[in-house]
Amino acid sequence: MVGAALIAAVGCTHGASARNTSDLVGGALPRTRAERTSYTETSTYADVIAFIDSLKRDHVPFVRQELGKTTEGRVLPLLILSRPRVSTPAEARALHRPIVYVQANIHAGEVEGKEALLALVRDLAWGPKNNVLDSIVLIAIPIYNADGNEVFKPQSVNRTEQNGPESVGQRPNAKMLDLNRDYMKAEAPETRASLAAFEKWNPDVFVDLHTTDGSFHGYALTYAPSLNPAAREAGAYTMDSLLPELRRRMQARDGFAVFDYGNFDAGYEERDITDSVKQGWYSYDHRPRFGTNYFGLRQRISILSEAYSHDPLERRVKSTYAFVHELLSLVAERGARIRDIESRADSQFARGDYTTPIPIRSQLTTAPEKVPVVFEVMAHTGDSSLTQPGVPRGYRRTGTMRTQTMPVYLRFDPVLTRTIPHAWLISAGDTAAIALVRAHGIQVERPSAGMTSARISRFVIDSLRTEPREFQGHHEMHLTGSWHDTTSQLPGGMLMVRGDQLQAVAALYLLDPESDDGLVTWNVFDSELAAGKTFPVWRVVAALNASP
Ligand SMILES: [Zn+2]
């Protein structure tokens, strides 16, 4: 629990520089590469490791571990910060505090998350006064896409819509996988390590730090909760309570205007903005291939942070720093409420909920809210000159900000729901599928000896459709078909995924043949699929071990 005095202390230290902490800790204050270069350069992997090493002191409350290794074998640092110091999930849980997992650099050209998180870790760990480390456990992953970070190229190549720094890493990892499209198929070693850390630490809150991709809006940072409706209460609470309060605090205490993540659907010239019907502010995607959407399937709070790509690096670092710092304080204050939401969800799914409809396909809402949105008016230069890094050729910024009330599309509506079955049955020969399901922290086991037959439901495939366009090395698969119930003897060699387990929602999303981001989508079952055939994963629709 967090006492009022502690909250006050968190507030007091807020925004304070740690420059007065060096006496306490001993030695000069370590500085990030961005700080040392007046925000003209960003940290290499070696810089990050050296910076972390420089923070170590006997009484500094952080522990360095390994998240895992990258494709090219780099060790990914995982930092655990709390007072008192903890180094295991059991020790962290024994403190009865929220565990907040903050990840930076998943898109390695988007560099301010890395710089802000390193600075925040230093300031909290070396801070002389009580701070939020007395109220939460922070797990920091400062350089998640370490391989991508090292592929330095001009920003005009690696980050075309970003205002510096001049040299940055690339978006994908060393296998050219976009790690923020990999959370369901989990093909990258980085993703496997991330999923294992989620399972090990069971964080209460996940934060993923990014930079926007282009729209000229009026906000230092934009944010989103898990947009997947299957995130249920945790997702709704994040969107409707946590994020609005964060927005208020960022403006009042830090001087940063922030807003829900989105992009305009039209341009920013005068001729575009006069047609208010055309205008809209659109969020991105609900599918759990994106990390923050995925984490919502765990029924936990999940937040995407997107610093404004047209701000210079210093301002992006500072807005990201303030956002994470404010979030840590807010989570500390709301710990009891957050635990309440989690324990309701956990008991629901651990006990087995076979009746609540869970969304497995969704689409952007067709009923937007009308909300004022701030944008910058852009002007033609009359030629193809480049006016500023990240600004399209032939345009220049005017500095004129306008506010217009427009349709704002932030929510996704379910278009297909399914209940969680008592169990799924899958052939033990489907080894790739089983390994992937297990990588998500989902238990796969042998059916009990007494279970020789069951009331089951099987999906008969009507049609298959593959996306013509390759995406992340795949042609995504879509199935149509129908479910048929029967009582069946269980063939030998079937394994079982029980419905009464914590990750039942993720299991449903992965295993259902009609899910919009499951194993079918990512071609895991392609060799077993044909029109007229039965889908290889069956649903057990009556209580296990009951005589049918
Ligand atoms: Zn990004």
Q: Please, could you describe this protein's structure?
A:
- With 548 residues, the chain is an alpha+beta fold.
- Helix content is 29%, strand content 25%.
- It contains 16 helices and 21 strands.
- The strands form five sheets. It has an eight-stranded mixed beta sheet, with helices on both faces. A five-stranded antiparallel beta sheet has the order 19-18-21-17-20.
- Residues 1-23 and 273-277 have low confidence and may be disordered.
- Zinc ion (ZN) is lined by residues 107, 110, 210.
How confident overall, as mean pLDDT?
Answer: 92
Question: How many strand units?
Answer: 21
Unreliably modeled segments: 1-23, 273-277
Rg, Å, rounded: 24 Å
Query: What is the count of DSSP helices, taking H or I runs of 4+ residues?
Result: 16
Task: Walk across the major sheet and give the strand order.
Answer: 1-2-4-3-7-12-8-9
Strand percentage: 25-35%
Helix/strand-derived class?
alpha+beta
The biggest sheet, with number of strands, parallel, antiparallel or mixed sense and barrel status, is: 8 strands, mixed
Terminal Cα span: 49 Å
Q: Give the proportion of residues in helices.
A: 25-40%
Overall 3D shape: globular
- Distinct ligands, ions and cofactors found in the model: zinc ion
